[in-house]
Amino acid sequence: MIEVSGLVKQITDGYSHKCILDKLDFHLGEQQSVAIGGDSGSGKSTLLHILAALDNADKGVVKVAGLTLNSMSETQADQFRKKHLGIVFQQFNLIDCLSVWDNITFPARLNGLSIGTYHNDLLEQLGLSSHKHKLPVNLSGGEQQRVAIARALSHQPSLVLADEPTGNLDDNNSQNVSELLFGLCKKLGLTLVVVTHSPKVAAFADTRLLLQQGRLLNTPNQTSNFVSA
Ligand SMILES: Nc1ncnc2c1ncn2[C@@H]1O[C@H](COP(=O)(O)OP(=O)(O)OP(=O)(O)O)[C@@H](O)[C@H]1O
Ligand SMILES: [Mg+2]
Known about the structure:
Number of strands: 10
Distance between the termini: 28 Å
CATH architecture of the domain at 31-45 and 74-216: 3-Layer(aba) Sandwich
Shape: globular
Largest sheet: 6 strands, mixed
Bound molecules: adenosine-5'-triphosphate, magnesium ion
Structural class: alpha/beta
């Protein structure tokens, strides 16, 4: 599902280049989950943005669902995100003026998919049935993040990306949201990449990768114990 080889990302501060991702190589199979950890500034969000075709690699090849992201036009990248990606953010990023139901069904509608049993089942499995007609402002943080998970799964994407999905939640909600995110992706057969600082969240993943100053300290086959270096 994900093939990354020789990925390099540099930034220029006017005078010099700084390598923020340095020759990354990893593969992740379909229906697998991986947690990516590492210190602040190690390049985790940059990597996620590149996997989402929101940013470009300077060198190397990045393939997702058989598509080479490097060579995509803006329009192709938009289409790729709309069809193949579900994204969960730390700040939930729900649409304030839409109900829970309209937030959840939005990506499916964008893709011209029918709305029905699948979406009602999502709502139920995430414990949101009684909140269906509420606005996000009337929900707790944990509830809002569960809506964001349902929205990310709404159009049955091939890949779900989550950047610190539990970063704004307390311990109980963090465990609950992680269990639902990893559990639902496994059940639906989706590939999942979660950036997290939390070893407890990372423990839900099939494999764990650690980034340090833009370099991977291990491969998915040498699963790290996620103790930050
Ligand atoms: N647009 C940019 N311009 C300049 N530097 C950038 C830019 N984006 C990221 N960086 C730098 O690249 C490095 C990696 O940033 P990134 O946001 O990927 O880290 P991170 O691992 O997600 O950190 P955190 O855990 O704090 O979210 C950092 O040193 C950051 O300052
Ligand atoms: Mg980050």
